[in-house]
């Protein structure tokens, strides 16, 4: 694995125009891993513990925000509109 980094460093030294390419590719890969991790841990549609919490979407409060971006939505003003299970 360390030899791979030496090869990349050698190519970057000989071709400095590749530096932005490596920056944007590594930044995009990092952001995609972070987005996947956030979706896997915060989204109520994903259930990791089927024995203790088989339906995590029923534990969500009506004013709890789970989306990454909420445009024109104030979750603190929402009222309960569903029955208790």
TrEMBL record:
PANTHER family cross-referenced by the UniProt entry: CYTOCHROME C OXIDASE SUBUNIT NDUFA4 (PTHR14256:SF4), NADH-UBIQUINONE OXIDOREDUCTASE MLRQ SUBUNIT (PTHR14256)
Protein name per its UniProtKB record: Cytochrome c oxidase subunit NDUFA4
Family: Belongs to the complex IV NDUFA4 subunit family.
Membrane topology designation: Single-pass membrane protein
Keyword Mitochondrion: yes
Keywords: Electron transport, Membrane, Mitochondrion, Mitochondrion inner membrane, Respiratory chain, Transmembrane, Transmembrane helix, Transport
Entry-linked InterPro entries: B12D
GO annotations of cellular component type: mitochondrial inner membrane
Source organism (scientific name): Haplochromis burtoni
Coarse class of the protein's main subcellular location: mitochondrion
Membrane-traversing stretches: 20-41
Subcellular location(s) of the protein: Mitochondrion inner membrane
UniProt key word Electron transport: yes
């Amino acid at each position: 694995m360390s030899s791979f980094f030496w090869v990349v460093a050698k190519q970057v030294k000989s071709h400095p125009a590749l530096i932005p390419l490596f920056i944007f590719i590594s930044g995009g890969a990092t952001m995609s891993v972070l987005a996947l991790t956030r979706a896997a841990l915060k989204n109520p549609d994903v259930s990791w513990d089927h024995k203790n919490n088989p339906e995590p979407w029923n534990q969500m409060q009506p004013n709890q925000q789970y989306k990454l971006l909420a445009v024109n939505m104030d979750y603190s003003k929402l009222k309960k509109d569903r029955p208790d299970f």
